[in-house]
Predict the structure.
Amino acid sequence: MPQRSVVAVGASLLVASLALAGCGTRGGDDDGETGGGSSDNKVAKIGVISPLSQDLAALGLGIKNSVDLAIKQANESNAIPGWTLELEAGDDQASPDVGKNAATNLASDAEVVAVVGTLNSSVAQTVQPVLASANITMVSPANTNPALTQGADFATAPERAYPNYFRTCTTDSIQGPFAARYVFEKAGIKEIATVHDKKTYGQGLVDAFTQEYTKLGGKVVAAETINPDDDKYDAVISKIKPSKPGLVYYGGEFPQAAPFSQQMKAAGLNVPLMGGDGIFSGEYLKLAGDNASGDLSTSVGAPIDSLDSAKDFVAAYEEAGYKESYDAYGAYAYDAANAIIEALKTSLADAETAEDARQATVEAMSGVSFDGITGAVAFDEYGDTTSKVLTVNEVDGEEWKPVNTEEFN
């Protein structure tokens, strides 16, 4: 989890992206619903479940706004004749219990046919069964835990548990080893320490990194954990420092990773902190301070602002006037929403109501394939993205700069 041509969901979307100024300058109504379209049309809603408040709101709002943009463009281009799409957003506060409640609320709305979310893998674990029982398609732009698609025994006996679940980002089974290869082979660091926050995402990422790193010949000289609500890390840093690691690999998100990095340096542990996509945010740079230069993160896909395919998205997002950045997952949320819209073109064609189209939408998702702003969008037999491109980013002054982008093999 923890910055973004328009997708070939239809050439008309290119026109729509340039016409957003006519849609107003706000990213949806205050209640989280996106209007537009003919008053005679039937309504189908695409939900969003992400943290819209609390520490991870920067990432969650980027997801919500990007889905809002995709919906507005679809309505402007009349992508699904006879239907108007609306956004219905639920704030999960990065909490599994709150996320479950948000999913329950969306599932009870007969007009909700699909959901983009969640940000956190731990929240997805409680949301998946709720949406699956209602046959509501779920597409995550940010969940990276492999078990969500391939089950608890994903390493030895993968089995898809929820046929309604898909994702546009790659998994920790790829992200962890990708980071390990960079550290060992390209950076030449042979001894590291690991720290994670005990949550599903953080622990899974560290496990995947460690397995590949030690297989390559690297040595983990310290392995520690923190609590997700900690803000003082002197005890853990004191345990790590005597082992003299060349890097600390952190599994978790930026609200804890940034102060951890800051406190490391203050304590004299002057080595890079590296994390996954959960720290790849402008908020990390703000919180980590001046000594963060040299810190590293991985992110899924190639840098969005370097892709020709994303230029129209970036321009349209800016023109729409959203107050928040699309941040790390906005582009993947936009592709997730457009994947859903592609499926809805089939499932809503002969449906009387949105609820009638739920199962047909799940079935149509497996055949979705188009050129998205993050690259080719398609799903394998487990619902995972077929794209395995990742990037290593390094803090350089006040920005993240990509230092290595490639497809993982």
Q: What stands out?
A: The longest helix spans residues 57-76.
